[in-house]
Amino acid sequence: MKNKIKKVVVAYSGGLDTSVIIRWLKEHYQCEVVAYVADVGQGGEELHALEEKALKTGASAFYVKDLRKEFVQDFVFPMLRANAVYEGNYLLGTSIARPIIAKGQMEIVQEVGADAVAHGATGKGNDQVRFELTCYGMDPNIQVIAPWREWEFKSRTDLIEYAKKYKIPVTATVKKPYSMDRNIVHISYEGGILEDPWAEPPADMFRLTTDPAKAPDPPGHVEIGYENGNPVSLNGKRLDSVALLEQLNEIAGKHGVGRADLVENRFVGMKSRGVYETPGVTVLHQAHRAVESLTLDREVLHLRDSLIPKYAELVYNGFWFSPEREFLQAAIDHAQKDVVGVARIKLYKGSATVVGRKSPNSLFRSDLATFEKDTVYNQKDAEGFIKLQALRLRIRALRDQKGKKQ
C-alpha cells in the first residue's frame, strides 16, 4: 500500500496532458506539486513562459534542467555508435530521450525532498515503461503516479474539455488533437488524425523538414568527421556535439531529409502509427555506417549488426539503464576505436546518400580490390577457397542424386 504523498515532481512539458495533471494532482492527492522541465533541445519557443504557466496552474515551484549536452553525448551518440534502428525504420528519437528526462526528474526529487514522481504517459504507450524503469532503477522506493492509469478521463478530447472548464491554456484542439513530442533528435507525431494508417499526414503538420517536393533543386553536400565512432566535425569545422546536431538538423531539414511514417509494435503489445522528422540523425546514421564500412573488420561488423535489433529493442522498451544494454554498449564501443574518418553525404529532395568516405584507418586496399592488373592477389587461389566452401553443398547434392537412383 502506498504511503500518503506529500510532494510530487511532475515531468512537465506545458502540453495538454501535463497542464491538466498539475491541477488534477492537487485535487486528488492534496499534495504539493513541483513542475520539472528537461531541456533536451525542444526549442526556446516550447520553454518560453512555461514557468508562469506551471505556477498559475498550481505548481509550487518550477525547475528547468539544461540536459542538451549530456543528452547528445551520453545518450544519442552511444546509440548512434550502435547504429540502432527499431524495426528497420525508427531512429528512436523519443525512446532515447525518456531515460535522461527521468534521470533529471529523480535528481530534482533528491533536491526538493519529494517522495513521488508523476508523468503524462498513457497506460497504452511505451513512455510509461521508459520513465518508470529509470525511476525505479535509481530509487526502488520511489512512488510513481501515472494519472492516465487512474483518472476519469478517457481521451484527449476529455482533457481539452477539462482544460477549458478550469481555463488552463493549451494549444491542442478537438480538430487537431494529435500528440507532438520534440527534442534535438526529432519531432514525433501520434494520435488523433494519424490513427488511421491509410490517411496521409497533413502537409502543414511538419516543422523540421521541407516538403521534399519543394526542397531545393540543387543537391547539397555535407562532410561529417568521426573520431572513435562519434561525429566531431561538420564540413571541416570542429563543433561541440549540440552545435553539430543543431546545424545538421537545419541543413538536412532544408532538403527534406528525415521524414518517416511507420506502424510500429509497442512494448505493451499493440501496434501504433507514428510520423517522425529526424533530419540530422538520419544523416549521421548514414555517415557513421560509411566510415565503418572502411574501418571495421568484416566479422566484427557482421557480429555487431546482428546485435542491432536487440540493442534497439532495449532502447525502445526503456531498458537504457540495464546491465544488458551496458554490456552490449561495452562490446560495441570496443570496436569503435578504429572508426575514424570522414563521410560525404549528398542531400537531395528527402534523400541522404553516401557519395564518399575516407579514413586513415581504412582496411580498403585498392591494389587488392582493383579490376585492373595487380601483383598482390593470385586469382587462382579462389578456386580452392570456393571448393572448400562448396564441400557441404556438394555432399548434399551427391546424397540427393543417390536417393533419386534408388
Would you summarize the structure shown here?
The protein is of the alpha/beta class and 406 residues long. The chain contains 13 helices and 14 strands.
How is the secondary structure organized here?
Blueprint: E1 7-11, H1 16-29, E2 32-39, H2 44-47, H3 50-57, E3 61-66, H4 68-81, H5 93-112, E4 116-118, H6 127-138, E5 143-145, H7 156-165, E6 179-182, E7 187-190, E8 220-227, E9 230-234, E10 237-238, H8 241-254, E11 259-265, E12 271-277, H9 279-295, H10 298-317, H11 323-335, E13 341-348, E14 351-358, H12 366-369, H13 381-405
Parallel strand pairs: 1-2, 1-4, 2-3, 4-5
Antiparallel strand pairs: 6-7, 7-12, 8-9, 8-13, 9-10, 11-12, 13-14
Helix pairs in contact: 1-7, 4-5, 5-6, 8-9, 10-11
Characteristic terms for this protein:
3 domains; 13 helices; Rossmann fold; 14 strands; alpha/beta; 43% helix; five-stranded parallel sheet; single chain; 406 residues; five-stranded antiparallel sheet; Argininosuccinate synthetase, chain A, domain 2
Q: State the share of residues found in helices, binned by percent.
A: 40-55%
Class derived from helix and strand content:
alpha/beta
CATH topology of the largest domain: Argininosuccinate synthetase, chain A, domain 2
CATH class of the largest domain: Alpha Beta
Question: What is the quaternary state of this protein?
Answer: single chain
Query: Beta-strand percentage?
Result: 15-25%
Named CATH architecture of the largest domain:
Alpha-Beta Complex
Strand order of the largest sheet: 3-2-1-4-5
